[in-house]
Specification:
Blueprint: E1 4-9, H1 13-26, E2 30-35, H2 38-47, E3 52-55, H3 66-76, E4 81-86, H4 93-100, E5 105-110, H5 119-135, H6 138-153, H7 157-175, E6 180-185, E7 191-197, E8 211-217, H8 226-237, E9 243-250, H9 256-264, E10 271-275, H10 277-285, H11 289-303
Parallel strand pairs: 1-2, 1-3, 3-4, 4-5, 8-9, 9-10
Antiparallel strand pairs: 6-7, 7-8
């Protein structure tokens, strides 16, 4: 079953919380969370995993409205569907037209004062969306493969790096991790590309600490070498046990020196897993990417 992670954004917290409570009660297996302040909204759309966003359109006193917010959400997570629930939809038809071309709009609903007047319709829309995903999970795999292709074709070096990090974040979110922070600096001012909260209920993965660190190397002409490994392993060690598992992802390959150093350091508490282009494609094409990831971890830990 595809995770039913739903984000509700409304400038009125009371309404957002009430809607979330009702959806949790009406839609089976759903995880619903809300955001109502500008700071909360910005951090949530960046760092949380959700595959359905329910948005208000007119957000009084904010520096953005629901339309511009939807555009930002689609740019960050192109697999998320948007459902607008608002009393002001007709006022925004002009701005909505361009957004419709993205294919990410699930629908529009008039927000009536009495929730009982539209709760059945809302439930049907949400459940139909997730049932379709459950029946055809390859939709997401195909979309991820297309996104990876776009990442590799990107010519601008800075944008290439950013897009690769965002792609890896989406890959881990598709595996089931719900919170991923990007470009985080630790107390030593070392920057980590991605920090994943290890929040999946899985006996195998839970052995590796509360967090997982990820380094993204998107330089097709350069192999990841010994020095890259040492720098990343030091970042893991600096977490003092909070993160005992780390991944180095590369669109190219790993140098022999990196493998030799990994074997030499294998007796330590932290484990660094190498993921190159063939393994990325294996994860993308897998019918069960979480099990595939666990198998990769298991094989590399045993080899080292």
């Amino acid at each position: 079953m595809v995770p039913r992670k739903i984000l509700i954004i409304d400038d009125e917290k009371v309404q957002a919380d009430a809607l979330a409570k009702n959806i949790r009660a009406e839609v089976a297996y759903s995880t619903v969370f809300t955001a109502s302040t500008e700071e909360e909204i910005k951090s949530t759309i960046e760092d949380k995993f959700y595959n359905l966003a329910i948005l208000d359109i007119r957000m009084d006193g904010f520096s953005f409205d629901g339309i511009s917010l939807a555009e930002e959400i689609v740019a960050i997570n192109p697999f998320t569907k948007i459902l607008f629930v608002s009393k002001f939809i007709p006022e925004y038809y002009g701005k909505i037209t361009s957004l419709m071309k993205s294919g990410n709009i699930l629908g529009f609903m008039d927000k009536k004062v009495d929730y009982t007047e539209w709760k059945t319709e809302l439930k049907v829309i949400i459940e139909q969306y997730y049932n379709d995903l459950d029946e055809n999970p390859q939709q997401i795999s195909s979309a991820l493969i297309n996104l990876y292709s776009e990442v590799k074709d990107e010519e601008d070096t800075y944008r290439k790096g950013q897009r690769f990090e965002n792609f890896i974040a989406l890959l881990f979110q598709n595996i089931g991790f719900s919170e991923i922070l990007k470009r985080v600096k630790d107390k030593s001012l070392n920057e980590v590309d991605l920090i994943v909260r290890n929040d999946i209920d899985d006996n195998f993965l839970s052995k590796f600490g509360k967090y997982i660190l990820i380094e993204c190397k998107n330089k097709p002409s350069e192999k990841v070498d010994k020095n890259d490994f040492i720098v990343f392993q030091n970042k893991l060690t600096a977490t003092n046990g909070l993160a005992e598992l780390g991944f180095i992802f590369t669109t190219s390959a790993f140098a022999r020196t990196a493998y030799i150093e990994a074997v030499r350091e294998s007796k330590g508490n932290v484990k660094v897993i190498f993921i190159d282009n063939p393994l990325i494609m294996g994860l993308l094409k897998s019918a069960n990417p979480r099990e595939t990831l666990k198998r990769i971890i298991d094989e590399q830990v045993k080899d080292n």
